[in-house]
Amino acid sequence: MKFTETAWKVFNQSIEDYHVSDDVNTLIDNPFEKDSLERILYAKNWIDTVQWHLEDIIRDENIDPAEALQLKRTIDASNQKRTDLVEYIDGWFLNKFENITPKPEAKINTETPAWAVDRLSILALKVYHMSLEANRESASEEHRRNCQAKLDVLLIQKEDLSTSIDQLLTDIENGNVKMKVYKQMKMYNDESLNPILYQKGQQK
């Protein structure tokens, strides 16, 4: 089974498991073995799925401002966890390919494997929710038809992105692409880098 086939299957299991309760406060119950790639992928998509629904909630025009502020902070924390896990996945790939010597003419890709996997995880969520809308009985026929057209495009995108990821991994394994990882230097959560946070600390 290709990597992306495994990833897509795991992502959809995570999405289905979340929607059993459909509650952003539901704790993850990861069914995969410790240290397995599947366990990492499941955790990654669970974060994405919870954040997807947090983003829905915060867009409620009638939301209490205090609740919205708390949700914004929750989303910021979720974004940090998402970034950390993407970097962890890249670390997994670095270990996998540590004995590969890139060819002298090896190219450098515009994104690492894990950031491409991040896009695949989000795409799985888009496909799931667009499919719900394309089949929602309470919606108009026009709405369902429009959503089905969008779903068709998303499924093409899924095939293209999956092919690209698998090709990238093959190219790295064959030494045709050099895997290079840059840590995402998030500034907004860092008290030493965010001016609002460090100026507040200096005033104490």
Description:
- InterPro entries: DUF4254.
- With 204 residues, the protein is mainly α.
- It is built from six helices and two strands.
- It has helices at residues 3-21, 37-58, 65-96, 113-134, 141-173, 195-202, and strands at 107-108, 177-178.
- A two-stranded parallel ribbon has the order 1-2.
- Helix 1 crosses helix 2 and helix 4 runs antiparallel to helix 5 (141-173).
- The radius of gyration is 20 Å and the shape is globular.
- It starts with a helix and ends with a helix.
Helical/strand content category: mainly alpha
Largest pleated sheet = 2 strands, parallel
- Inertia-based shape: globular
Please state how the strands of the largest beta sheet are arranged side by side.
Answer: 1-2
Radius of gyration, CA atoms, in whole angstroms:
20 Å
| Helix-strand topology string | HHHEHHEH
Strand tally: 2
Spans with pLDDT under 50 lasting ≥5 residues?
none
Cα end-to-end separation: 57 Å
Specify the number of helices. Answer: 6
Number of domains: 1
- Assembly state: single chain
Percentage of residues in DSSP E strands: under 5%
Average of pLDDT: 91
Helix content: 55-70%
List the helices and strands and how they pair.
Blueprint: H1 3-21, H2 37-58, H3 65-96, E1 107-108, H4 113-134, H5 141-173, E2 177-178, H6 195-202
Parallel strand pairs: 1-2
Helix pairs in contact: 1-2, 1-4, 2-3, 2-4, 3-4, 4-5
List keywords for this structure.
two-stranded parallel sheet; mainly alpha; globular; 204 residues; 67% helix
In short:
The chain has 204 residues and is mainly alpha-helical. It contains 6 helices and 2 strands.
